[in-house]
Design brief:
With 173 residues, this protein is an alpha+beta fold. It is 41% helix and 19% strand. Strand 1 and strand 2 form a beta hairpin. The longest helix has 42 residues.
């Protein structure tokens, strides 16, 4: 009878240990991911603003498609893990740096954009235009009457922007 009592206690203790170990691993993975997202977003907080300052793409409410094409192409060559979107003031996607058919959304929620621009604590996840359910970290800046919205750590595959327009290579929504 003693052996069975010790065996039962050993099994219960082993089970408690395994559950605690699994919870520890899950918590470590979750907090590591949050830390990585926060660090990446902090490092790239000004990326969208830098892009907009270097190559203004909107002049008095008009999109300069040739400049936008060049900006998208150059940035995709340097860092293919970012995705760039030009949004209007309501969050509608006007242009993007992705092959046609990859972008699933027509607009993104501006609530995370406004949190980001107000200096809210990071990480902040915004809508991923390539997925109807997923949210990702981003950088954003105001450009004229809209926003330059940059998804950080986007698609791992190299994606060069394309369009059906005769001149240029970036997609218009």
């Amino acid at each position: 009878m003693r052996k069975s009592l010790y065996a039962k206690l050993a099994v219960v203790l082993l089970g408690i240990f395994l559950v605690a170990a699994a919870m520890n691993v899950a918590l470590t993975i979750y907090t590591s991911r949050l830390y990585d997202e926060e660090a990446t977003q902090k490092l790239n907080r000004g990326l969208a603003a830098t892009i907009a300052r270097q190559r203004p793409v909107i002049h008095h409410g008009t999109i300069d498609w040739k400049v936008l094409d060049n900006v998208f192409d150059a940035l995709m060559a340097v860092n293919p893990s970012i995705e760039i979107y030009l949004l209007d003031g309501r969050g509608n996607i006007l242009a993007f740096s992705a092959p046609p058919g990859k972008v699933k959304r027509k607009n993104v929620s501006l609530a995370p954009v406004k949190l980001f621009l107000s200096g809210h604590r990071l990480p902040i996840r915004g809508d991923d235009p390539r997925d109807l359910d997923r949210r990702k970290i981003f950088s954003v800046t105001r450009v004229d009457d809209g926003y330059l919205y940059v998804i950080l750590g986007g698609s791992s595959s190299s994606h060069r922007c394309r369009t059906s327009r005769p001149a240029g290579s970036c997609s218009r929504a």
